[in-house]
Design brief:
This protein is α+β, with helices and mostly antiparallel strands. 31% of the residues lie in helices and 25% in strands. It binds NADP nicotinamide-adenine-dinucleotide phosphate.
Length: 536
């Protein structure tokens, strides 16, 4: 590369000085890394936009984040990793050198925090250094700057209770600002370097490690072994598989044998619906427990969507041993994919199993819940708001809307064999069309009330009071319970024609995100053509 740069990279005819050649070479390698990373993100189904700005320039930071928000939606996470070194004894250091090192970390962080909304972030990671904690010769500016980052992390954690805030005091990495000469210095001092893979993995672990809320962590090349299973579980990223669960069934998910997927396409790719995830977790929980009934779930969580961006996917449901809990039984269930050593958990819940179903609670729909007209016909809602195709046209009529919720008549699902080849059972345990229609009502409510679509990601509690839903549909009432920026939470009650409660979904949460608007549109309307089409 250096030879090619010597031949073609300099416009002047004179031979560049070695330091200039080194700068040009590093610039070229950095660009190549950026291009490779963007390609990797896109191969994984993500979208990446790269902008280069001087983060010490507050106006440039504000304008860039505003542009990003406009084109991609709210900013959920911020990783602040800009940094430069000017290692010298204090006597030899100029004010400009000090300011460059200090401002690149500290002034830029102030600009970034000023440019995000108080409730916008779900995570904030600051790349600090062990120099901030322990000092290092020649680094008075760098040490001070990193220690400021550590303190700002503490303050931000108290200001942003729903955001995972962490400052990581990294030891030296095997790359980046650690040049080969610096690496030799560290080796002489007995300090090992962090491999790029282990460092990247540690960052993800720290972002997922929410329970202790530690805001400053020190990470060096030797990472301590977790003391027990519990610690190991806490240190896992959210989508890492939990230990101690055994597989009960496997299924290859493909569009040929699962026709319903053609009606559940987001961003051009078929995506396994949350309602079917829930149904399959129920099958898993009952698999080794014949004679019990599915009473519902607690803490149903979507960890990572199952997206068929690369052809069929092999899924399996894994379960824990059954436990007694008061009057019922509990089983931990997960939907997973991937090889054993790199399993990904896509959804997780605690299934509630019962010997007899409980009596349904009474329910009276709040009188003002449906006082306004929704303003879209069902056809228009499916055409202009929702992404769901014919298999998931579960909403029959929208009976009314208000700022407190929405009410609809929803259809029952046909037998499982109409949706897929070789279904696991001849009848559904719940009713995935009724559940999905309830989730669609959340999207419709967000669209009308907030002008923005959403996707369901969490359910605190699902309970069903019947082992067979009526075949002629039910009435569903969604009551909004909480609304914070980018997240709406509500309860849905499903009742039959006589007003008997059949099921309740409590504390279900939808993530509200304007960037989903494009993903919801059928691909034919976007550039790039259609990757899949509706078969029915
Ligand atoms: N590598 C380590 O061993 C180590 C150890 C402890 C902490 N850290 C911290 O980890 C972070 C990344 O370090 P690294 O090793 O990856 O260093 P690096 O390879 O030198 O990268 C530093 C990055 O900061 C960017 N940057 C510098 N000044 C900027 C400015 N004014 N505006 C916008 N971007 C700016 C650079 O962008 P350009 O390439 O466009 O200039 C570059 O992408 C730093 O904050 C560092 O303090 C690193």
């Amino acid at each position: 590369i250096k030879r090619a740069l010597l031949e073609h990279g300099f416009t002047h005819h004179e031979t560049p000085a070695p330091p200039d050649l080194e700068v040009a070479y590093r610039h070229h390698i950095a660009n190549r890394e950026v291009a490779d990373t963007i390609a990797g993100i896109e191969r994984a189904g993500g979208r990446a936009v790269y902008r280069s700005i001087d983060v010490r320039d507050g106006e440039a930071v504000a304008t860039t984040l505003a542009d990003i928000r406009r084109s991609l939606g709210p900013i959920h996470g911020l990783i602040h990793a800009a940094g430069v070194l000017e290692d010298r004894w204090i006597d030899d250091k100029t004010v400009e050198q000090f300011a460059r090192v200090f401002d690149t970390k500290v002034a830029s962080l102030r600009h970034l925090l000023e440019a995000v909304e108080p409730e916008e972030l779900a995570f904030l990671a600051l790349f600090s250094s062990v120099s901030g904690r322990f000092g290092r010769q020649g680094q008075v500016d760098y040490a001070m700057a990193n220690e400021v980052l550590n303190k700002v992390a503490q303050r931000q954690a108290s200001l942003r209770p729903s955001c995972r805030v962490v400052a990581i005091d990294w030891g030296p990495w095997d790359g980046g600002m650690v040049t080969p000469a610096l690496k030799r210095d560290f080796a002489r001092a007995g300090v090992g370097v962090i491999s790029l893979k282990a460092g990247a993995r540690s960052l993800l672990d720290e972002l997922a490690y929410t329970e202790t809320r530690a805001t400053e962590v020190v990470i060096g090349d030797v990472l301590p072994e977790p003391a027990d299973d519990d610690a190991a579980r806490r240190a896992q990223p959210a989508s890492a598989a939990q230990p101690g669960l055994s597989p009960v069934f496997e299924r290859r998910l493909d569009i040929d044998r699962h026709a319903f997927l053609n009606s559940h396409v987001i961003g051009g790719y078929p995506v396994l619906p949350v309602a079917v995830m829930q149904e399959w977790l129920g099958h898993g929980a009952l698999h080794d427990n014949p004679g019990l009934l599915l009473g519902g779930f607690a803490e149903f969580r979507v960890l990572k969507g199952v997206i068929l961006s690369n052809g069929p996917r092999d899924l399996r449901v894994v379960v824990s041993k059954i436990r007694r809990h008061d009057e019922c039984f509990e089983v931990d269930v997960e939907l997973r994919s991937g090889p054993d050593e790199e399993e990904t958990a896509h959804a997780r819940a605690r299934a509630i199993l019962l010997s007899t179903l409980p009596t349904a609670p009474d329910y009276t729909q709040p009188p003002r819940l449906n006082e306004e007209n929704y303003g879209y016909s069902v056809d228009a809602a499916y055409r202009e708001v929702l992404f769901h195709g014919p298999y998931f046209h579960g909403i029959e009529s929208i009976d009314g809307y208000s700022s407190d919720g929405i009410v609809a008549h929803v259809r029952s699902a046909p037998p499982p064999a109409d949706w897929m080849d070789d279904p696991l059972r001849t009848a559904w345990l719940g009713d995935p069309l009724i559940v999905d229609a309830g989730l669609q009502m959340g999207i419709l409510w967000c669209h009308k009330a907030l002008g923005c679509v959403s996707l369901p990601t969490f359910g605190a509690r699902y309970r069903q009071y019947t082992d067979a839903f009526p075949t002629d549909g039910v009435v569903a009432a969604l009551e909004i319970r909480e609304q914070i920026p980018h997240r709406v939470t509500g309860d849905i009650t499903f009742v039959d024609a006589s007003g008997t409660v059949l099921a309740r979904m409590e504390g279900y949460a939808w993530t509200v995100d304007p960037s989903l608007r494009d993903a919801f549109r059928p691909l034919v309307a976007q550039s790039g053509g259609s990757r899949t089409s509706d078969a029915r």
